[in-house]
């Protein structure tokens, strides 16, 4: 079914990119966040291989906001765990917890703490690296007890004082993103970690819900295919991928581990590229991209792309990679960017590649999108795709109604005579 711009409400005036009502609503995924200035990079263990640091935890949505009513619908038990390649050679000790509540000491490298979100949730703990080789991460998760589920958070890597060359190289790359504060862990077929830097890049430095929704949607069955298979087979496997507005890179990096694309190119503004490079390097050490890279020759690439910038587009085209699948995840939120976004998409999808390229557009309604879809349909055939089903969301995120408002579209360039 072709997309009808009239399907998208147009009663709101075109105004600021994101209004308050656009930033906090029930369909968003709640997530834990690390706050405070103590628990930030760099974390390099001392000569005794110990790191003792304090940090705070809070709960918010993808934009760092929350409603007080949200807090009564989540659990209060927080589980701290050491993860990563070096976790088997590390131990975790809780030094103190403020305010003082129940503290359960479990076996191994796991501790459970009962916290009240209406008070300051501050912790201090010690991580000891027994055999210093690989970095580890400290993961905090809310144990499901309430009506709303919460996405966990990880520290940045804790590096031993002497580590292998690869880990040391990552530590150097991370210096290019000095305000990176925390990581998100996606534990699918293979572990993946992405650092967030909201203080450095604003909302562009955070994992957005749409990226998580797109991962789940692509992992589902392809209803329109004449042969059995998943959407990953149709959109990702054996394809050259190009993502616009990659942010942290969580979507492109995850797809590179879930399937076997020929190459993956992540793009964003020039100032965001260091975060993409950092997350790429991070997952070659503590994640699973080493295995993913070994399955193909093209590998992963990071490149600047400011929408509407002809020079950036030409440099991408000059790479010689004919991208089969373009990914656009929640990019239609600022009316001032509609025209440059369409311009770049048109330039990246020349008419002569009609029928070969497809763009997957993931849309979450915030403003009127009728103007955007009118621009887009001048050059592209836009078809509505089935949305997420509740089972997929529940299985992946143990969520409730989170992300069910996402809409998915397939965009194919029209032949030159039609355009």
Distance between the termini: 20 Å
**What's the CATH H-level superfamily name of the largest domain?**
Vaccinia Virus protein VP39
Low-confidence runs = 1-17, 396-400
Q: Count of helices? A: 13
Shape: globular
Radius of gyration: 22 Å
Helix content: 10-25%
What does this protein structure show overall?
There is one protein chain. This protein is an alpha/beta fold and 419 residues long. It is built from 13 helices and 19 strands. The strands form 4 sheets. A 7-stranded mixed sheet has the order 15-14-13-16-17-19-18, covered by helices on one side. It has a 5-stranded mixed sheet with strand order 4-7-2-1-9, with no helix packed on it. The chain has a 5-stranded antiparallel sheet with strand order 5-6-3-8-10, with no helix packed on it. The longest helix is centred in the middle third of the chain and has 13 residues, at 273-285. The radius of gyration is 22 Å and the shape is globular. The protein starts with 19 loop residues before the first helix and ends in a 6-residue tail after the last strand.
């Amino acid at each position: 079914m072709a997309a009808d711009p009239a399907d998208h409400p147009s009663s709101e005036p075109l105004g600021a990119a994101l209004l308050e009502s656009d930033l906090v609503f029930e369909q968003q995924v709640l997530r834990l966040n690390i706050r405070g200035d103590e628990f930030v990079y760099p974390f390099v263990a001392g000569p005794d291989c110990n790191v003792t640091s304090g940090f705070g935890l809070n709960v918010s949505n993808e934009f760092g906001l929350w409603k007080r009513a949200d807090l009564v619908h989540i659990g209060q038990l927080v589980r701290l765990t050491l993860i990563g390649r070096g976790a088997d050679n590390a131990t975790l000790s809780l030094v103190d917890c403020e305010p003082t509540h129940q503290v359960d000491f479990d076996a191994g490298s796991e501790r459970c703490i009962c916290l009240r979100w209406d008070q300051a949730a501050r912790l201090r703990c010690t991580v000891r690296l027994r055999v210093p080789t690989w970095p580890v991460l400290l993961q905090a998760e809310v144990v499901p007890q309430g009506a709303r589920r919460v996405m966990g958070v990880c520290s940045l890597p804790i590096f031993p004082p002497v580590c292998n060359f690869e880990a040391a190289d990552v530590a150097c790359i991370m210096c290019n993103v000095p305000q990176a504060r925390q990581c998100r862990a996606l534990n699918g077929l293979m572990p993946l970690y992405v650092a967030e830097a909201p203080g450095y890049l604003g909302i562009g430095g955070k994992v957005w819900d749409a990226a998580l929704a797109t991962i789940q949607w692509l992992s589902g069955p392809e209803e329109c295919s004449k042969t059995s298979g998943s959407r990953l087979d149709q959109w990702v496997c054996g394809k050259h991928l190009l993502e616009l507005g990659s942010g942290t890179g969580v979507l492109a990096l995850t797809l590179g581990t879930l399937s076997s694309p020929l190459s993956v190119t992540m793009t964003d503004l020039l100032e965001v590229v260091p975060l993409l490079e950092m997350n790429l390097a991070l997952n070659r050490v503590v994640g699973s991209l080493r295995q993913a890279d070994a399955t193909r020759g093209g590998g992963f690439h990071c490149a600047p792309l400011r929408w509407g910038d002809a020079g950036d587009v030409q440099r991408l085209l000059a790479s010689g990679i004919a991208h089969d699948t373009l990914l656009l995840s929640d990019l239609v939120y600022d009316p001032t960017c509609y025209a440059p976004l369409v311009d770049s998409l048109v330039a990246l999808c020349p008419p002569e590649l009609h029928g070969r390229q497809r763009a997957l557009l993931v849309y979450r309604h915030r403003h009127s999108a009728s103007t955007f879809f009118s621009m887009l349909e001048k050059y592209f055939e836009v078809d509505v795709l089935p949305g997420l089903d509740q089972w997929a969301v529940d299985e992946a995120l143990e969520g409730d109604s989170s992300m069910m408002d996402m809409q998915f579209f397939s965009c194919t360039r029209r032949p030159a005579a039609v355009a």
